[in-house]
Amino acid sequence: MITLMGNSGVSVLGRDADVYSSGVSWGAVIGGAFVSAALSLILLALGAGFGLAAVSPWSATGATITEVEIGGLVWLIVMAAVSSSMGGWLAGRLRTRWTSIHTDEVHFRDTANGFLVWAVALVITASFLTTAAVAMVGRETAAQGAANATHRHAYFVDRLFRGEHPSAVDAAVQAEAERIFAAVLRRNDGAADDTAYLARLVSAKTGMSEAEAQKRVTDTINDARQMEDMVRKNAARILLWTFLALLIGAFCASFAATIGGRQRDRVRTA
What is the extent of the structural domain holding 185? Predict the structure, then answer.
C-alpha cells in the first residue's frame, strides 16, 4: 500500500485523499449517459407508437396535424427531462464518495458530473442511435419525405398546366417549367421575364388566354411561396422547441445528479 506524506509528515490518504482525486467520476458519468441514451430511445418508441395510433390516413378522423405537432413537441420535452434526470441521478448515486471536500465543492462536482452525463448522452444519441431511431420511425417515411423535398414544386407545376380537358404534357416541357418555377421562387425581383415565359407555356399547353395564364402563374407562385414560408416557420419552431428540450434536459441531469449525490452521501457504511 502506497502512502503519500505531506510536508508535515501527515498522511494525505484518507482525510485529504479526495483533494488530490479527480472531480469527475467517469465510470458513473458514462454509465449514466448510456442509461439516458437508452431511455431516450425507449421513450421515442413509446411516443412514436402513440403518435402513429393517433394519426389516421383519413382526413375526417383521428387527431389533426396541429394536435399531433403539439403532442410531439410536448413529448420531446418530457422525453428529455425524464431520460436526463434518470441518467444524472444514477451518476450521482454511483460516483465516488468525497468525504473531505467542502459541501459547496461537492455540490459543484455533482452538478458538473450531471452536466457531463447530459453531454455524453447527447453525443451517443446523435452518433449511434440515429439509425435506430430512423428505423423505428420508418425508413420508407424518411425516404418519402426526402423525395417530396426534392420534387416539392412538382404539384404547383402540375397546377399550371391543369385544364378542362386533361391531357399529357410533354415531359421536357414539364421539367423546363419546374426549373423555371424554382428559379422564380428563389428570386426577389419578381422575375418578370420568367413569369411571362411560364405564362406563354401555360397558354400554349392549356389553350388559355395569356392574361388568364399570367394570373394562374402569379397565383401559383404566391401559393408556393406561402407554403415555403410555412415550412420555414415550422422548421424554425421545431428547432426552437428542440433547443428548449435540450436545455431542460441539461438542467434536469445536473439537478438530478446533486440529488443522487446527496442520497449517496447519506448512506452509512459500517
Answer: 154-227
Cell numbers at 257, concatenated: 445528479
The tally of domains found in the chain comes to 2
What does the alpha-carbon distance between residue 16 and residue 21 come to, in Å, rounded to a whole number?
Answer: 9
Q: Do 123 and 177 fall within a single domain?
A: no
In 10 A of CB 149, how many CB atoms? 9
Do 133 and 222 sit in the same domain of this protein? no
Residues in a beta bridge with 11: 5
Q: Is there a contact between 114 and 88 (Cβ–Cβ < 8 Å)?
A: yes
Does pTM top 0.85 for this prediction? no
Same domain, 37 and 133: yes
Distance CA 177, CA 192 (A): 15
Are residues 242 and 191 located together in one domain of the fold?
no
* Coil, helix or strand at residue 11: strand
Query: Cβ(73)–Cβ(221) under 8 Å?
Result: no
Each residue's pLDDT tens digit, 227-254 = 888 888 888 888 899 899 999 999 999 9
